[in-house]
Specification:
Blueprint lengths: L6 H16 L3 H14 L7 H17 L3 H14 L3 H34 L4 H7 L15 E9 L5 E5 L8 H8 L3 E4 L2
Antiparallel strand pairs: 1-2, 1-3
Helix pairs in contact: 1-2, 1-3, 2-3, 3-4, 3-5, 4-5
């Protein structure tokens, strides 16, 4: 078990953590605070350790946006702390973590709702817009369908030929139609 850091050395190192945190250098503040915590002898009720865990919680919550990691630090101060002010700050930190979780959940629900409301194929919306944002005419026009029948030429290639009367399609022609030999003529 490591010896506690000299109070003067601890205060100096802690000020460096606070400075990094206040200047927005959260990764650096985290590294410094974790290193100081490793040097500090663990012990319930040590105000220096409580204060260090509180700032670690703040770094995770406010600086790095990691409320899940902050919860454990705040909870540890609540469970082992003896300083009333630090316990109160830990309770406030836990409440802020719960707010952050609620905001994350609301943001996730908003994203899901937005995705559900978005069209599955947005490019189709572009094709129906007329000039200058006017609604396009989506009426259906009649088309003429001709069946193509394949036959072999002397050279061995297959050439599709139109059937003269498309209204009388027999079983053989229906089979050819099922093979994909269909030509649609838009009139």
């Amino acid at each position: 078990m490591p010896e506690p850091v000299d109070p003067e050395a601890f205060d100096q190192a802690y000020r460096a953590v606070e400075l990094s945190y206040s200047e927005g250098r959260f990764d650096e503040a985290l590294r410094e605070a974790e290193a100081l915590l490793e040097q500090q002898a663990p012990g319930g009720g040590d105000p220096r350790t409580e204060r260090l865990k509180l700032i670690l919680g703040h770094i995770h919550l406010h600086g790095l946006g990691q409320p899940g990691r902050a919860v454990a630090l705040y909870q540890d101060v609540l469970d082992t702390g003896t300083t009333a002010t630090y316990i109160e700050l830990a309770e406030q930190g836990l409440a802020l973590c719960q707010d952050a979780f609620a905001q994350e959940a609301a943001a996730e629900r908003a994203v899901v709702a937005e995705q559900a409301a978005a069209p599955a194929m947005p490019w189709l919306l572009e094709s129906v817009a007329g000039p200058a944002g006017q609604a396009a005419d989506l009426s259906i026009e009649a088309v003429r369908v001709e069946e193509l029948v394949a036959f072999a030429t002397p050279a061995g290639s297959v050439v599709p030929m139109p059937v003269k009367n498309p209204s009388t399609v027999g079983p053989v022609e229906e089979a050819e139609l099922a093979k994909g030999l269909l030509r649609v003529v838009l009139g």
